[in-house]
Amino acid sequence: MREAAFVKQNKNKWVAFEEALNSKRELSPDQLSDLYIELTDHLSYAKTFYPGSNTQLYLNSIASLAHQKIYKTKRESKNRIVTFWKIEFPQMFYAHQRELLISFLVFAFFCFVGAFSAANDGDFVRSILGDGYVNMTLDNIEKGDPMAVYKQMGEFNMFLGITINNIKVALFAFALGIFLGVGTIWVLLRNGLMLGSFQYFFHDKGLLWESARTIWIHGTIEISVIILAGCAGLVMANGMLFPGTYTRLESFKRGVKNGLKIVVSTIPFFIIAGFLEGFVTRHTEMPDWLAITIILGSLGLIVFYYVIYPYQLNKKDNHGQHSLY
After folding, report:
1. Predicted pLDDT of residue 269
2. 155 and 51 inside one domain
3. Could you tell me if 278 and 233 are in contact, meaning their C-beta atoms sit under 8 angstroms apart?
4. Residue 60 sits in the same domain as residue 92
5. Of 75, 101, 136, which marks where a domain is finished?
6. Is 222 in the same domain as 156?
7. Which of 29, 233, 265, 303 suits 105 as a labelling partner, its CA being 20 to 30 A distant?
């Protein structure tokens, strides 16, 4: 695009932004942040295609002014934590629905591979889950309590141990995104194979429903958040592989920052999953309707917060910004 066309296309936005920065009217932190992000996108583009031009100098001056207003005079809100989960994160996450879908499809595919392999190779389950776990479960089945594994540890100790371990897995899945996403895919592969072979193992013993209604009480959130951690790793990898109008380093930094926000957003859900596994899953005698209610409620919570709510928030913001642009 020629410089004149680029200026003509975006001049009104720049002027509106400059007027907002110089006016006495206070913009909300979200409005100011959105404007600043778009401006820095344009500045990066100008540096790449029109280096040293008046356009670059002009945009750089506005960006400097915006930076001072946002970061040097900003007062942190007392409700910063609430704002993060309620507004900041969902707005950001809307742009990463594609990575979420890819993470889900990869995980689902390897779940199928795990189940298929278990069905066609009698030793596959043992190679994935380990002889110790399989033998223990077979022993529990003979004793008439297939899900006894969830009753062996004290409630609080199980809750704490499971929560910490799951957070470690999530951080691991995210951090391995540094290897261009291959490491993240490996984590999704490993966990997908385990889940698929695990569920087929109980199906083969005629206990699929009993295992599913028990395991998915905590597993609905636990597995969903592993997929979200995979999404975080893919976001970081995407920042390295596809910088767009940013420099590769700047794109990588943004990928790391957004990926880390995704991981942080999952911590409350891991706590919920750990609580369910430690205190609720062990009650295998609960009626089916209660187990199904917990499972569907957990699924609804995840889908709403990570898919529906970001869409609603983005749609609302777009309507609210029409008058500005």
Report:
1. 94
2. no
3. no
4. no
5. 75
6. yes
7. 265
- With a cut of 70, list the residues of the chain below it in pLDDT: 1, 23-32, 34, 68-78, 317-325
Q: How far apart are CA 233 and CA 223, in angstroms?
A: 16
Per the structure, the count of domains in the chain is 2
Task: Classify residue 324: in a domain, yes or no.
Answer: no
Structural domain of 97: 87-318
By C-alpha distance, which of 260, 274, 93, 235 is closest to 171? Answer: 260
On whether both 104 and 54 belong to a single domain, the answer is no
Q: What is the pLDDT of residue 30?
A: 62
Same domain flag for 207 and 162: yes
Verify that 217 and 165 share a domain, yes or no: yes
For tokens 């001056």, name the residue.
61
Model pLDDT, residue 101: 97
Residue 15 lies in a domain: yes
Sign of torsion over alpha carbons 135, 140, 144, 145: negative
Burial class (CB in 10 A: 0-12, 13-18, 19+), 119: middle
Q: Cβ(160)–Cβ(274) under 8 Å?
A: yes
